[in-house]
Amino acid sequence: MRPNAQRVAASAFFSLFYVYTSFVTGSHAQLGTSTVINVSPILQNAAAAPTVDRSLVSFSMELMAITGFTESEITKNIMNAWFDKTGGRPSVRIGGSGMDKSIFLPDQKEAMIYNQLPESRWDFGPSYFPIIANYFPKDTEITFGLNLANTTDNWKNTIDFAVAAKQGIPQMDRFEIGNEVDNFVRNNLRTNPWTVTDYSSQWTKVANMIKAKISDVQFQPAAYAGTSPNGFDLKQLVAAGVHNNNYRIPTYSLHFYPQSYCGAGRDATRLDSLADHNLLTTQLNLFNADIAAAEGAGGLFTFGETNSVSCSGAPDVSDTFGAALWLVNYALSAAAKRAQRVYIHSTLTTAYSMFLPKAGDNVRTGVRPMVYGMYFLAEALALPARNSNTKFLISPVALPNNAGDISVYGLYSNNNNNAAPAAGIPKPGIDVGKRRSVSTITTTIRVSKSVVLQAGVQTIMTTSLSRVAKSTVVSAVTVTTRTVRRVPVTTRVPVTTTVVKPTTRIVRNGGSDGVMTITTIIMYAAHPTVVMVPSVVRRRQTGIKTMTTQTSSVIYETKMVKAPVVTTLTAATTISWISRRITTIKTTVTVPVAARATPGARAAAEPSTNKGIYLARAVVLNLSRFNSSDEASLICRSCSKGSPPGFGTQGPRKKTSVSLSGFQPGRKLKLLRLQAAGLNAKSGASVSGLTFSDDTGAIATQAKPESVTVGADGNVNFSVLATEGVLLVDEAVK
């Protein structure tokens, strides 16, 4: 729960989809019935697609509110609904603003007491831990928040709290030390100057003292509120020594709220902005450097506290169906950026809580629309069978014309049992900057063999292997000098060619059918070659002379190409010797010469020779705005008030026609819809008719999915309403 909510959104990695769109949108417009979206999402490079964590949607709960969640079966039932589908137990982060107001009192009988004097704080006793340990399943990963603000006696109380929590909660997986430390000055927990260097110094002191008490302890550092003007970012934190060389750090955490309800920020909260895919993309792109820093330090990146609107959420925004659509769009976008998980933050009765486990002032227990977004995601990531080892790769669609009203994601099985038809030898690619020129290297492999034939027809299968290496000259350096002279520059491009020495070994088997086994052994010898680039001569000019020289830097990509050759031979009844030349195999490699290399460029290892991987699942979100005028849908029993009436969209609710290719032709697909009366609806949400009980959080009615069939041309056609999500599932993909 933080006042600064400026960081966020979208898929920065290369999209392997092709999307064609033809529609007209406005900031509040519905997409019309004439809209046709053609998508061809066959995944060609599985290595570029991140794997989605089975616990993608997890929970963040306030330290002082956790007992309220554990007093209700709603919490457990909703978490189990996710686990039953995905096989991944939602993780629980126990933290928030209460972390830095917590005191551990080992002699206190009560689990928790709130004290206002001399200052606001929460006192916890040993009986607090069994409440957590006995409620959550044994395989739940729990992250526990500790107080960094209280430095009394060199953080002695914080160390005692950590040791007691580790002993009292078997599910304890890692600790956070301090919450949103980049806001410590604003919250009067530190005085200026307060920098990331100061924070890292204090964090390491506390972490080292905990390590001395708990040998196998793990940490989740940072927990920053988000973008900060004072330089709090993961790159600087890692540089200060908070990394896996010194500590066990499986994840680094940052917080994300796309909007804020703090102070003056509440006037800017808007439901329609929450449904804007382009805005989400822009916000999430701000985390690119932090994700890279976390991975560079040997950890993963996670959104350790997140929700629609900070400072407890905004009524009529956080508690609407718009928040459910946002959750689906956000979670999949985050996963596509390699964020491990999104921890949805909740308190007991506030606007952004996914559900209310306990009744409060003017509200009853209940399940809000965001839970349906979570369940829709669970269906998208559902295991094909219980105890399956399948995980899903994700690739988002980059829509042309920056269309913010449609969002599409493809999901693929990591078992690679859904390969598209072979399309020959793929051209190798390399991750470089802007291309300026291209050179081509062609290698030719000829294979000859001698075959001993017996009577009858024999089929001989051989496999020719070629290794191709390519090189790229990179980086340009511009210098300015007052000395004018002729400067010859020669660039040498090392190129490795492969010379093949075929060897044939003939082995007769002992079978009565006379079939013979022919084994061809290919020998390789690498020979370096040097390609000379012409000299560059600089001519004399008056005044200051600027010269550009190229420096040699080599990037290699090696590819194994397998090209099977089948030869069928017919022999006479007598044994004869036949020498036959197999067809020449040519491999052409295009080598780009770039001005500079993209940081972290690396070769793809042994890419597949098939055309790609068919879709296992696809999610299509129609985010064009449709608000309901049905007053019954604008209220809910767990909401403090209903959505304002009189803001319904004029005219009928429109549909968008979709033609999608990428599934295997002829397959029958299950179709599920995330639906409600409108973006502003607070009740009546469902996943194709599936609903949850407001009293228990258990599934009350089951889904009734539709069925669509992929045509022989590979296209599947369906429609999606404005403000609706569609999930397509090929249940034959394992």
Automatic annotation (TrEMBL):
Pfam families: Glyco_hydro_79C (PF16862). Keywords: Signal. Residues 615-727 form the Beta-glucuronidase C-terminal domain. Transmembrane segments: none annotated. Residues 1-29 form the signal peptide. It comes from the Eukaryota. This is Beta-glucuronidase C-terminal domain-containing protein. It comes from Drechslerella stenobrocha 248. The lineage of its organism: Eukaryota, Fungi, Dikarya, Ascomycota, Pezizomycotina.
